[in-house]
Write a structure and sequence with these properties.
It is a single chain. By secondary structure, this protein is α/β, with parallel strands linked by helices. The protein has helices spanning 7-10, 37-50, 63-68, 98-107, 155-163, 167-170, 192-207, 222-231, 248-254, 265-272, 288-299, 321-336, and strands at residues 29-33, 55-58, 89-93, 113-117, 129-131, 143-144, 176-180, 211-215, 237-239, 257-261, 278-281, 304-305. It has 2 domains: 7-150 and 321-339, 3-Layer(aba) Sandwich (Rossmann fold), CATH 3.40.50; 155-305, 3-Layer(aba) Sandwich (Rossmann fold), CATH 3.40.50.2000. Helices cover 34% and strands 14% of the residues. The strands form 2 sheets. Strands 2-1-3-4-5-6 form a 6-stranded parallel beta sheet, sandwiched between helices. A 6-stranded parallel beta sheet has the order 9-8-7-10-11-12, sandwiched between helices. Helix 2 (37-50) packs across helix 12 (321-336). It starts with 6 loop residues before the first helix and ends with a helix. Residues 1-22 are annotated as: Disordered.
C-alpha cells in the first residue's frame, strides 16, 4: 500500500505553484474524463500542477454501465480509455471513470499508477492513491485529505486575467463584486425564496454603488438566470448569458470581493484560491458534508458566510492543489522506485 503525507504536514495549500520538476522527466499522465466540467477542473488541475500535459481520454459509457458504475466492468466501447500505450500515471474523477481506471491498472500489468479524486463508492481499492477532500471523511493509508479539491486557478492565471480583463468586465467601475451562482443539486433545489434572495442581494449591491458581475452554471434555474440577467445591465452590471467564452476566470481575477453559492465545493474552492474576500451563500437542502466543508474554511479564515452586507477584511489565498501535486509526486516515487 502506498502511504501518503498528512495534509497537516503538507500545510493548508497557501504556498506557490508546483514545480515542473516534481516528476521524473518524460513521465506520462492520462486523464480519464466523464465530461463534467467540475471533474475536469480537478484532474487537469493536478496534471497542470505536476507540470505535465496529459493525454485526455473520455469515458462515455452506455446507460447500463454508467448506471452500475463503479461496480460494473468497463464498457467495451470505452476501450480507448484503457488502451496502450500505457501511461505512467492515470488520474480520474467521477464514478463512471472508475471501471476504466481499474481496467487500465489491470491491463498495464500494474505498471500504471492510478489516482482517483474524491471519495470513491467502491472504497480504498479504487486506485493506488485517493485524493478525497477532508469533508468526505475518508481515511486510509492511500488517502490524501486536503482541505479543498484541486483546481486550475494559479497566481499566474489570475495575474494574466488582471492584466487583460474580459472587455465586459474592464468597463465596470470599481469596486467589482463577483457573484458566482450554482444551482440545483441532489441535495436541494433553489425555490422561489432562494431565487428572490439572490436577486435582492444583487440589486442591493448595485444600489450601494458596487458593480456586480455574475456567471451561472448549467445547474442554475431558468428563473434565477432570467432575473439576474434582467437587473445586471450596464453601466454597473454584467451577466454572462452563455454566449461566447465564459469570463469566469476574469471575474475571479478582477473581483474586489466574491459572493459564491455554497452548492458547489469546486466553485467555493476556486473562489478561495484568489486573494479577494469570499462570502458564501448557504445552499438549500440537506448538506451535512457541505456544512463541514464551509465550517472548516471559515475556521481557516478563508470565507465568511454571507449575512447580507460586505465588510472590510483581508485574507490570504488558499489553494490545496500544490499540496496535492506534491503528495502525488511523493506517492508515485514510492510506487515507481522499486520498478526503476
Amino acid at each position: 500500500m502506498i502511504r501518503v503525507p498528512s495534509p497537516a504536514l503538507a500545510g493548508e495549500g497557501q504556498g506557490g505553484g508546483a514545480s515542473s520538476s516534481l516528476l521524473p522527466p518524460l513521465t506520462t499522465i492520462r486523464v480519464l474524463s466523464d465530461g463534467r466540467a467540475g471533474h475536469e477542473a480537478q484532474t487537469l488541475g493536478v496534471a497542470q500542477a505536476l507540470g505535465v500535459t496529459p493525454d485526455i481520454r473520455c469515458v462515455v459509457s452506455r446507460h447500463v454501465y454508467a448506471a452500475l458504475a463503479p461496480f460494473a466492468p468497463a464498457d467495451p466501447r470505452d476501450g480507448f480509455a484503457h488502451a496502450p500505450p500505457y501511461p505512467d500515471i492515470a488520474i480520474a474523477a467521477g464514478r463512471r471513470t472508475i471501471p476504466a481506471l481499474r481496467r487500465l491498472k489491470r491491463d498495464s500489468g500494474g505498471r500504471t499508477f492510478t489516482i482517483y479524486l474524491n471519495k470513491p463508492a467502491n472504497g480504498l481499492s479504487a486506485a493506488d492513491l485517493i485524493v478525497a477532500p477532508r469533508h468526505d471523511g475518508l481515511r486510509g493509508a492511500n488517502v490524501f485529505s486536503p482541505l479543498t479539491p484541486a483546481n486550475r486557478i494559479t497566481p499566474e492565471r489570475l495575474a494574466a486575467g488582471r492584466a487583460a480583463p474580459d472587455p465586459s468586465i474592464a468597463v465596470l467601475p470599481r469596486p467589482r463584486i463577483a457573484l458566482i451562482v450554482g444551482g440545483d443539486s441532489r441535495h436541494g433545489a433553489y425555490g422561489a425564496a432562494h431565487i428572490a434572495e439572490l436577486e435582492h442581494n444583487a440589486a442591493s449591491l448595485l444600489a450601494a454603488g458596487r458593480s456586480v458581475m455574475a456567471t451561472a452554471s448549467r445547474r442554475t434555474p431558468t428563473a434565477l438566470r432570467e432575473r439576474l440577467q434582467r437587473i445586471l445591465v450596464a453601466p454597473s452590471g454584467c451577466f454572462w448569458d452563455g454566449e461566447g467564452e465564459n469570463p469566469y476566470l476574469s471575474m475571479l481575477a478582477n473581483a474586489d470581493a466574491i459572493i459564491v453559492t455554497g452548492d458547489s465545493v469546486n466553485m467555493v474552492g476556486e473562489a478561495v484560491a484568489t486573494a479577494a474576500p469570499v462570502y458564501v451563500v448557504p445552499p438549500p437542502g440537506r448538506r451535512i458534508k457541505i456544512d463541514a466543508y464551509l465550517t472548516a474554511l471559515a475556521d481557516a479564515g478563508a470565507i465568511r458566510i454571507w449575512s447580507g452586507a460586505l465588510a472590510d477584511w483581508r485574507r490570504a489565498p488558499l489553494n490545496a492543489t500544490p499540496d496535492i501535486a506534491r503528495a502525488v509526486a511523493q506517492a508515485y516515487s514510492a510506487f515507481a522506485g522499486p520498478r526503476r
